[in-house]
Design a protein that fits this description.
The chain has eleven helices and seven strands. By secondary structure, it is mostly helical. The strands form three sheets. The protein has a three-stranded antiparallel β-sheet, with no helix packed on it. Strand 2 and strand 3 form a beta hairpin. The relative contact order is 0.19.
Length: 212
């Protein structure tokens, strides 16, 4: 499996955590001249001169209270994975928060699994034999972030590629014009900032309310 295929598999898993709040779907069209268009606009908005090729479902989730114990239980694993792959631990933790709300058994509507929402094929490629094993999932997802870090210089582009694919980031020269991807980038950056000092001094025992 090549890296482009890996990216496509990983991206398909980032769009689908189950719940009650839904983000926009992403539509893929082919224009009459053969040009491929990715957009969050349905057929009636783009016109019948574009042929619908596929629809990628946006993620959704159910907000719930998140205790400090739930939030911090994977910190040692996150630190180990971040150190091994040279990725900021606060970034890894922010992605886990946004992807699964720290639920190691999370399964998306399209079959992505575990804390960092790995698709089965991607998990296999990353040598993650059990995506519901927290350690394996965190190390696999962090390895993927490290790959994207090597491809893009800005955090915005790294996160957009994690959510919408490396090809889309290159096609649009940055964050694609997808509402879901734009919201995802903003949220993970906010969470990263929240967790920035967490791995050096801790964050206390207060309860926090999860938000994406």
């Amino acid at each position: 499996m090549n890296k482009r295929t890996l990216l496509a598999l990983m991206v398909s898993g980032t769009l689908g955590v189950t719940g009650t709040v839904c983000a926009s779907d992403i539509y893929k069209y082919r224009a009459a001249d053969g040009t491929i268009l990715f957009t969050d606009q349905p057929q009636e908005r783009v016109g019948r001169d574009h042929t619908l090729l596929s629809v990628r479902k946006g993620w959704s989730y159910t907000p719930r209270a998140l205790t400090a114990t739930e939030r911090d239980r994977y910190d040692s694993m996150i630190s180990l994975a971040a150190s091994r792959f040279d990725v900021e631990p606060a970034l890894v933790k922010a992605v886990i928060h946004a992807e699964s709300l720290f639920d190691p058994k999370a399964i998306s509507r399209v079959g992505a699994q575990g804390l960092m929402q790995l698709m089965p094929e991607t998990a296999t490629y990353l040598k993650v034999s059990n995506p519901f094993d927290a350690r394996q999932n965190i190390f696999g997802g962090t390895q993927f972030l490290a790959y994207l870090k090597g491809k893009f210089s800005s955090l915005d582009d790294i996160l957009a590629a994690y959510n919408a694919g490396e090809g889309n980031v290159r096609r649009y020269g940055g964050i694609p014009p997808f509402k879901e991807t734009q919201a995802y980038v903003r949220k993970v950056k906010q969470l990263k900032q929240r967790y920035a000092g967490h791995f050096s001094k801790g964050m206390g025992e207060e309860e926090v309310v999860a938000a994406r």
